[in-house]
Amino acid sequence: MKNKLTIYKPNELIEIVGNPISAVGLVTYNFLLHKFQNLKKDKIIISMSEIFNVLEISDNYDELFNYLDSLRNISVLSRDSKGKLWGGFNLLSEFKKVGNGVFVQIPDTIFKALCGDENEKNLYYTTIKLLEQRIYKCSYTIIFYEIFKKYEKVNIPIFNLEELKNITGTSDRYLEYRYFKRDVLTKSIAEINKFDSKYNYSFEEKKIGRKVNEIKFSKVEKNLIDIPENLISEKLEKAILKARKNRFVDEVYSAKAMEKLILKYNEEDIIKGLNELYKYNSEIDNLSKILNSKIKEIVDSKKVKPKKEAVKVAKQKVEVSQKSELDLEKEKLSILIFKIDLPTRERIMLFGELSVVEDLESLEKLRDKIKS
To answer: What is residue 370's three-state secondary structure?
Structure first.
């Protein structure tokens, strides 16, 4: 039974603004919603042993009642998928011990959302697997997990920082953003990525001046390409993930096209091409075509470079060769100046002229002058 615990949870209930809910408290609430939905009743009596067994929490009655009481005391404002206010209500209307069980009632608003018709479910409901939620240790992870599930088939919207603090119940905590980033955002995303089999999630900071004002979440599929693992390295996988953070790339990404590129080009060149695509800021009609073009440019530039280097080296050799011949001839001429019987003044002047000679033609003219 535990492996089949699934509910359809209304999107409107996912982004809760109010007091913080503990991880176990939220899982407990989801389990209760599952029961209400299956039984199609707004009030039920459930045995405490079933709750302990399904949620795998200790047989601590005081602990369970604390969770339920915290849910009853949470008053929330909820928004619909368009961001408009949906209404205000408490998560639980009432609960009390009845024999070996617990009587629990939910507000009529929540009951109607849970037990709507199939059309409403298709439009407004998100599938939540309760067992996935129990693995999270960070109390904020489940909140982000549910948000990501809500937007699994569409782009995750940009959240205002204050809005995120309201959703996570941390408005009065983490006054410095760096601590909110460390303890709420980074820890939650890391936990989700560790266990989510389909997507890798990340976030990007949007700033006004030097202050972080908004958070943009993004996701990319973990199964990047369906080819043997030995053909793709961790370095290339990271480059693909990075490139797909660009929405223009992600919209046209093709696993088949990437497979062909891997078989055709050197991995280093593919990574360079992907790094250039990461900065792309316009619509892409054909990812394979544009990436092929960029990689080909990178490959061709390698071929041109050695030719230029060869020409440069050859030129340097010629220059060295010419310079060596000039030096040799200048040395011969300086010996000749020493041997000729000349006044010291004239000899010094000739050495001065020889020192400024820069080519063989000028050297020959000086030689003729000396001989004459």
So the answer is: helix
Total tally of structural domains belonging to the chain: 3
Range of the domain at 74: 1-133
- pLDDT, one tens digit per residue, over 159-212 is 999 999 988 888 888 889 999 999 999 999 999 988 887 888 999 999 999 899
With beta carbons less than 8 A apart as the criterion, state whether 155 and 220 touch: no
Look at residue 271 and tell me if it is in a domain. Answer: no
Tens of pLDDT, residues 122-169: 556 666 676 666 667 787 888 898 888 888 878 888 999 999 998 888
Residue ending a domain, among 133, 164, 192, is 133
Last residue of a domain, one of 106, 133, 160: 133
Task: Choose among 156, 92, 130: nearest CA to 9.
Answer: 130
Q: What is the pLDDT of residue 254?
A: 74
Per-residue confidence (pLDDT) for residue 86, from 0 to 100: 64
- Is the confidence at residue 56, as pLDDT, over 70? no
Is the residue at 151 inside a domain?
A: yes
Average pLDDT, the chain: 78
Neighbour count for residue 205 (Cβ, 10 Å): 14
Instruction: CATH number of the domain at 212, please.
Output: 1.10.10.10
The single-letter code of the amino acid at 305 is: K
Whether residue 166 sits in one domain with residue 67: no
Same domain, yes or no, for 8 and 93?
A: yes
Q: Do 26 and 121 share a domain, yes or no?
A: yes
Given this model, what pLDDT does residue 315 score? 59
**DSSP classification of residue 278:** T
**Averaged pLDDT for residues 10-34:** 73
Residue of 118, 89, 99, 121 lying closest to 10 (CA atoms) = 121
CA distance 20 to 164: 12
